[in-house]
Write a structure and sequence with these properties.
Bound molecules: flavin-adenine dinucleotide, NADP nicotinamide-adenine-dinucleotide phosphate
Shape: globular
Helix content: 25-40%
Number of helices: 17
Strand content: 15-25%
Distance between the termini: 34 Å
Oligomer: single chain
CATH class of the largest domain: Alpha Beta
Structural class: alpha/beta
Largest sheet: 8 strands, mixed
CATH superfamily of the largest domain: FAD/NAD(P)-binding domain
Length: 555
């Protein structure tokens, strides 16, 4: 890592920018200070490169900075949902729970930023509004809403797959006189719901975590549900020092396993095929996974995520649990997910979710039966009448995978915009590079396995691969890197080809952009698995970055 005296002050660099056009202000600009941006910044600095990271929020953490809603936590084991790049870091950090809560993950990322001295190269409270490539100088010009304009040779978009929060366009929203919150933009000081009538719209992963906690505090809670999810019990628990020590002792092997796995997490292997297992044995196996908690239920059998009939056995098991748990049979039926396969929308992992509907102060509104008509000053009007509320919580999700990138005016060669290029849906090579946008890298983007995995594992792989590519360029004297159109077309075809015919196509999910009206319906993540993808990327690098144009001059 270069010492701070070897780095020019930001002010002197930026003033130099106004006088010299071909010398960049920084070697690289990184956008976003979540898991991806922080590791990118650290890695680039270790190579002696000058970097400026712009972050819209006032602190590091990304997802874990913004999503402070009650109950927010991870559903991947803490020991796995963490960086592996520094052994001292993974040995010294003490996770307290199996599934860490938002404050603990945020503390961890703040610790990482401090430990590696990252903050001095980050501009907080600064949203990047445009990034333009200049064909003449071969540099990117990046501007922010706080008045910065800098140039850089490389731009890395670590803007997050789930960072562009969405409040649906419901008539009358502005007339509501109570409080309005979105789970992904939660006030730092928290929200006091005591004595209040609260409405939560949305029952995806965020709603499922927030609802039981809000129910404990609010006077009344009304849950507005459009599509019920499959909610698996978390069975979260404290992580004992002995257990953590064992994990730490085994870290090298454990990390290796994660990197080569399908999902980047360590789950018990499937116990066979559902369709080849006798019904009573099948139920027993589902019971075992249900009791253990977490995502492992989804892969109890090897055919659950590939065969609709097998999937239905798992789905029906979950429905039986809902009917067993929820006392009112009508409410139970409304909570039962039907009509799409388990896992084709992201499964939710919750604590006491179904039990919450047995509370006297909780009401479930089925928006399929009584849709929202409008928001009025005193609450939400469905076609069955007005639900009077003091606060509305939108747990309505994100413009996923492309939302944060689409919010930036990104222009590549010849001034072509990314928005126009992606009008019919995102197109990338390996999820990291876009033809026509030289020296621009996207992390955890569309076309990569990111959101179908333990995202931290995918992020580390992406960052290391991009840094490896930059090392290659610098050692060969190349200045420009960009996906070729042919390689990109082939990759998009491959990503789509795996998705077509899979169970994932049978749900209106955010993976497909179905949650955003007007968004092209394209399956955005790569279904091929973390390990396969990693090996493929490594092979592409070994083949001299096959499918990329790596040049000293712009062609
Ligand atoms: P982010 O953490 O989203 O960081 C992106 C940053 O970029 C944000 O801080 C944002 O402010 C900033 N940014 C965006 N646009 C701009 C701009 N124009 N200018 C400046 N800054 C900008 N994944 C899992 O694997 N397991 C889980 O259990 C899990 N739980 C999750 C729970 C929640 C509530 C959510 C929302 C997501 C969860 N995820 C989970 C996915 C999670 O997003 C990733 O695991 C990971 O945190 C993504 O890191 P990132 O750095 O790519 O993006
Ligand atoms: P989400 O999964 O997209 O859920 C949004 C919810 O809002 C859905 O129930 C959706 O209903 C509903 N909704 C959207 N627009 C609506 C409208 N106009 N009227 C009524 N309902 C509407 O978003 P999320 O819950 O924030 O989760 C997003 C992703 O973040 C997750 O899939 C996961 O990857 C990650 N996450 C993970 C965890 C975790 O436990 N680790 C926690 C939170 C988030 P429809 O389904 O009908 O569209």
């Amino acid at each position: 890592m270069p010492d701070s005296t070897s780095r020019e002050s930001r002010e002197s660099r930026e003033s130099r920018e106004s006088t010299a056009s071909s010398e960049p202000t920084y070697d690289a600009v990184v956008v976003g200070a979540g898991f991806a941006g922080l590791y990118t910044l650290h890695s680039l600095r270790r190579r002696g490169l000058t970097v400026r990271l712009f972050e819209a929020g006032d602190g590091v953490g990304g997802t874990w900075f913004w999503n402070r809603y009650p109950g927010a936590r991870c559903d991947v084991d803490s020991a796995d949902y963490s960086y592996s790049f520094d052994d001292d870091l993974q040995q010294e950090w003490v996770w307290t729970e199996r599934f860490p809560a938002q404050p603990e993950i945020l503390r961890y990322l703040e610790h990482v930023a401090d430990r590696f001295g990252l903050r001095e190269d980050i501009t907080f409270g600064s949203r990047v509004t445009s990034a333009h490539f200049d064909d003449a100088s071969g540099l990117w010009t990046v501007t922010t809403d706080s008045g910065d304009t800098v140039t850089a040779r490389w731009t890395v978009m670590a803007t997050g797959p789930l960072s562009s929060a969405r409040i649906p366009d419901i008539a009358g929203l502005a007339t509501f006189t109570g409080e309005i919150h979105h789970t992904a933009n939660w006030p730092e000081q928290g929200v006091d719901f005591r004595g209040k009538r609260v409405g939560v719209i949305g029952t995806g992963s965020s709603g499922v975590q927030a609802i039981p906690v809000i129910a404990e505090q609010a006077a009344e809670l009304t849950v507005f549900q459009r599509t019920p999810g499959f909610v698996l019990p978390a069975r979260n628990r404290p992580l004992g020092p002995g257990e953590l020590a064992e994990i730490k002792a085994d870290y090298p092997a454990r990390r290796q396993l994660q990197r080569q796995s399908h999902g980047g997490w360590i789950l018990p292997p499937p116990v066979g095929l559902a369709l080849e297992t006798a019904p009573d044995v099948r139920i027993k196996e589902y019971e075992t996974r249900w009791a253990a908690g977490g995502l492992a239920f989804q892969t109890t059998f090897g055919d659950v995520m590939t065969d609709a009939t097998a999937n239905e056995t798992a789905a029906e098991f979950v429905r039986s649990k809902i009917r067993e748990t929820v006392s009112d049979p009508v409410t139970a039926e409304v909570l039962c997910p039907k009509g799409y396969p388990l896992g084709s929308k992201r499964v939710c992992v919750g604590t006491d979710y179904y039990e919450t509907f047995n509370r006297g102060n909780v009401e479930l509104v089925d928006l399929r039966a009584t849709p929202i008509e409008e928001i009025v000053s005193e609450g939400i009007r469905t076609d069955a009448g007005v639900h009077e509320l003091d606060a509305i919580v939108f747990a309505t999700g994100f413009d996923a995978m492309t939302g944060a990138l689409g919010a930036i005016d990104i222009r590549g060669r010849d001034g072509v915009t990314l928005r126009d290029t992606w009008e019919a849906g995102p197109r990338t090579y390996l999820g990291v590079s876009v033809a026509g946008f030289p020296n621009l890298f996207v992390l955890a983007g569309p076309g990569s396995p990111s959101v179908l995995s333990n995202v931290v594992v995918s992020i580390e792989q992406h960052v290391e691969w991009v840094i490896g590519y930059l090392d290659h360029m610098r050692s060969t004297g190349a200045r420009f890197a960009e996906a070729t159109l042919e390689a990109q077309d082939e990759w998009v075809e491959h990503v789509t080809g795996i998705a077509v015919g899979s169970l994932y196509m049978q749900a209106d999910s955010w993976y497909l952009g179905a949650n955003v009206p007007g968004k092209p319906r394209i399956f955005m993540p790569y279904l091929g698995g973390v390990g396969n993808y990693r090996n493929l990327c490594a092979q592409i690098a070994a083949d001299g970055y096959r499918g990329f144009s790596t040049t000293t001059e712009l062609g």
